[in-house]
From TrEMBL:
GO terms for molecular function: DNA binding. The keyword Transferase does not apply. The lineage of its organism: Bacteria, Bacillati, Bacillota, Clostridia, Lachnospirales. It comes from Lachnoclostridium phytofermentans (strain ATCC 700394 / DSM 18823 / ISDg) (Clostridium phytofermentans). Transmembrane segments: none annotated. This is Transcriptional regulator, LuxR family. Signal peptide: none annotated.
Amino acid sequence: MINDQKNEENIKEKHPNSTISKNLINDNHLEGILTKRELVIATSIVQNETNKYIAHKLHISEGTVKRMVYNIYQKLGITSRVELTKLFYNCMDE
């Protein structure tokens, strides 16, 4: 519980659109498909963050972010950030 509260606080600090972040990270529809790290990256993409910014924020290389974005697309059967955003918002509506 304490870790969840800390994570939620970090999300709210880092993301002005915290309601979206919280819902996306905790979204049961995608938890079984994407890893926790992929969910964080997908959430960042939905919030219109660049690969470069995501890499800096997560302390990983931009190449790693690109590879993980590709893996996310493959797992979800999509090909763009727009499709990812639509998918996330559709999951939130369910």
